[in-house]
Amino acid sequence: SSTMSLSEAEVQSARGAWEKIYVDSEDNGTAVLVRMFTEHPDTKSYFTHFKGMDSAEEMKQSDQVRGHGKKVFSAINDMVQHLDNSEAFLGIVTPLGKKHATQLKIDPKNFRIICDIILQLMEEKFGGDCKASFEKVTNEICTHLNNIYKEEGW
User: Fold this and answer.
1) Radius of gyration of the chain (CA)
2) What pLDDT, on the 0 to 100 scale, is given for residue 3?
3) What Pfam families does its record include (predicted)?
4) Residue 142: inside a domain, yes or no?
5) Which among 140, 61, 96, 28 is positioned nearest to 50, based on CA atoms?
């Protein structure tokens, strides 16, 4: 059983929505990052290799951007697979949050930005229902990450 606020039905429909975008995890992960870097250029400052890239085209071609996009999507995929097991879910989210808070010193607002862009992309590609069924998941992820940040003294 779960301490999450998602019902079994919500977990199932969230997984269905995620599946659609995860099938092309590298391209979609890249698209999400490129949109973030373009719309929120300050986020590029965390990534030394992306700093000098100004054009979306250049970013899209970058192995580093593609690699990180894939990494982000695979981390979310792990979380999505464990939405019905809060212990396993926290086992993924906690180290990720700690690393971003303490080692990488990433502002936690960036998690919300990434989640919102994923939701936008879902809506553009697969419609509003797809987005709606994944929205609660992004809220769970961001809430847990923010809690970890608080514990780390942010």
Assistant:
1) 15
2) 54
3) Globin
4) yes
5) 61
